[in-house]
Amino acid sequence: MGRPTGRYRVRVDDTQVNRRIPFSVMFNFRDVGGQPARDGRTVRRGRLYRSDSPHRLDGADREAFAALGVRTVIDLRRPSEVERDGRVPEFDGLAYRNIHPEHADWGDNPYRPGADLARYLADRYADLAETGAAGLGEAVGLIADQTAAPVLVHCVAGKDRTGIVCGLTLAVLGVPDTDIAADYALSTEAAERFQTWFNSTGKQVRPGLPPLTTPAEAMILFLTELRHRHGSVEGYLRHAGLTDADFAALREHLLE
């Protein structure tokens, strides 16, 4: 039995939860595969992963990561964030790409406690989709390249920038919005572990940032309003530089 999340009654079921892959120093790592598409096919497992930043990988975690056979890491963080925290360690045969979708600093539009969090996040995602279209298109285009797979896409906490890229990818694959939102919502539980680790570092949270919670409504709103502006998710991604051949390649190697 799944559990509802938010007013859209999106359900997080056992299949979604079981896509999580445990690490000691990454808190939001999971396989994006296993999602059902509208045409009856399923998103193939072991081809696309999402996570928070893997720069802390070491010891047994490093061995577990190597065993997944990840071939390409797409790092969505700002170059300054990469410089501050570091990047994924080097592995034989691993390609690293820092693709930052340009966007305003969220501190410029701070979250006010008590405000509608889903609405705030959907608005920030919409802003990022407009200013960072080239970066988002480049990231989804790389995911469409089967020679790059398996791919790991990540940012800092693995919820916002990563959630947008994975949400766009799953939408092109024909996964219903409610299932995309349920995957996105899994980051809430992971965020609790991330917050515990962050607190242990003694670092301070920047003022004005929203809670790490990922309400399913935020992803539903983002995708719905993106379609209103661009006609479809594919229409938006064409604007971002993708082609019908990219969409076909994405479906060919990520659906079974």
TrEMBL record:
It comes from the Bacteria. SUPFAM superfamilies: (Phosphotyrosine protein) phosphatases II. InterPro entries: Prot-tyrosine_phosphatase-like, Tyr/Ser_Pase_IphP-type, Tyr_Pase_AS, Tyr_Pase_dom. Gene3D superfamilies: Protein tyrosine phosphatase superfamily (3.90.190.10). One of its GO terms (molecular function) is phosphoprotein phosphatase activity. Residues 123-193 form the Tyrosine specific protein phosphatases domain. Belongs to the protein-tyrosine phosphatase family. This is Protein tyrosine/serine phosphatase. The lineage of its organism: Bacteria, Bacillati, Actinomycetota, Actinomycetes, Micromonosporales.
